[in-house]
Amino acid sequence: MTAGTGSAAVTRAEYCVVACAEAWRGAGEVLASPMGTVPALGARLAKRTFSPGLLLTDGEALLVGDVPVAGAPAAAEGWLPYRRHLALVATGRRHVMMGASQIDRYGNQNISCIGDWVRPDRQLLGVRGAPANTVNHPTSYWVPKHSPRTFVARVDMVCGVGYDRAAAAGPSATRYHRVQEVVSDLGVFDFDTPGRTMRVRSLHPGVRLDDVLAATGFALGMPDGEVPYTRAPDAAELRLIREVLDPRGLRDREVPPCGP
Q: Residues 77-88: pLDDT tens digits?
């Protein structure tokens, strides 16, 4: 497929940017907190196009405009002191897209350790803000390398809370809890099933369903009918990605080109 600047084909990374951007479609005036290059590009693309009300920060205390990930200094649009940030976080007015070292069929996420918590094989980031994020506002995940080591039957430690554990904890955990979607380098996944387990929403062009199933450590739900492909960026979106938001091509470092 060709689109946008010149005749260069849409890359896998660019499909991923659009898929991440779609997580904030219709979000309104909420704080977008993307973690990773591709999610950051997605949030800025969404703000530039179909979700202009999104709030973006400089990672510290300023609300900023939709600047390039690696471009000029951010133009401040407002002040976001920590107390206001916490108020947004605690009342469902934030949508974070975190990473996941492990994630299971219910959306439980692990970024803390691999192996037994008492004596782990590997120490990772730690629990950090994942529990509070997941029970207080919508959460999505970005996984740049889809594999059975990441999509596991059971996470070694629960950091981000999935649907089964939130339900077991009761109304205090479910009031704002929503694991919206998981975007990987192979496709987009959601939890729109009766049992709130992960299902395939779309595959990125060039990806076979068998490849996804083989790279996932649990059974995935399927949509009715054929599995659709992730939508491609239109010409305007592709120009923004390539010429405005990421002219240095940092997206390709996170998701190397493979040719859809």
A: 665 666 676 777
DSSP string of 54-119, one letter each residue: -BEE-SSSEEE-S--TTSSPPPEEEE--HHHHHHHHHTT-EEEEEE-SEE-TT--EE-SEES-TTS
Give the other-Cβ count within 10 Å of 25's Cβ: 10
User: Which residue, 175, 187, 234, is CA-closest to 45?
Assistant: 234
Spatial distance between the Cα atoms of 125 and 225, rounded to a whole number of angstroms: 40
As given in the structure block, the two tokens for residue 174 are: 């479910």
Residue 40 sits at the vertex; the CA angle it makes with 122 and 106, to the nearest 5 degrees, is 55
C-alpha distances (whole Å) from 17 to each of 2, 6, 42, 60, 74 are 16, 19, 5, 24, 20
Residue 121, token pair as written in the block? 């094989």
The b/e string for 214-235 (b: 16+ C-beta within 10 A; e otherwise) is ebbbbebbeeeeeeebbebbee
pLDDT for 29-71, tens place per residue? 888 999 999 999 999 999 999 999 998 876 655 566 655 444 5
